[in-house]
Amino acid sequence: MTKSISCHDAGKDCEWSASAPTENELMVKIEEHVKAEHKEIELTPENVANIKTLIKEI
Ligand SMILES: [Zn+2]
After folding, report:
1. How many angstroms separate the CA atoms of 9 and 54, rounded?
2. Which of 24, 22, 40, 21 is nearest to 7 (CA)?
3. pLDDT confidence bin for 24, thresholds 50/70/90
């Protein structure tokens, strides 16, 4: 099972997507991307919880 996420699914005008074998590894990639490209998004516990609802298993 692979965990996957894309910014497009989050409603962002951004073509970035990522996948990883575990949610924790995927969250590391997401945090790097958000810090680099979406500085307006604060990684509060609430936002992290919302991001996790967008993670799909593929
Ligand atoms: Zn993005």
Report:
1. 7
2. 40
3. very high
**Among residues of the chain, what percentage have pLDDT more than 70?**
100
Residue 39 has phi, psi (to 5 degrees) of -65, -15
Model pLDDT for residues 11-23, shown as the tens digit of each residue: 999 999 999 999 9
Measured in Å, residue 14 CA sits from the centre of ligand 1 at 5
Q: What's the sign of the alpha-carbon dihedral 36, 37, 39, 43?
A: negative
Centroid of ligand 1 to alpha carbon of 1 (angstroms): 23
Domain ranges of the chain: 3-57
Of 46, 51, 45, the C-alpha closest to 11 is 51
